[in-house]
Amino acid sequence: MGIIDILIHQGKQYIPDLSKPVLPEIYRGLPHLSTKACGEGCNACVDICPTDAIVHTQGISLDLGKCVFCGECQSECPEQKIKFTNDYKIATNDRKRLVIAEGMTEGVKLDPDKVRAEIKQFFGGSLKLRQVSAGGDNADENELNACSNVNFDMGRYGIDWVASPRHADGMVISGPITEHMAEPVQICYDAIPFPKIIILAGTNAISGGIFEGTKSLNRSFLDKYPIDLYVPGYPPHPLTFINGVLAMIRK
Ligand code: SF4
Question: According to the model, what pLDDT value does residue 8 have?
Answer without folding.
Answer: 84
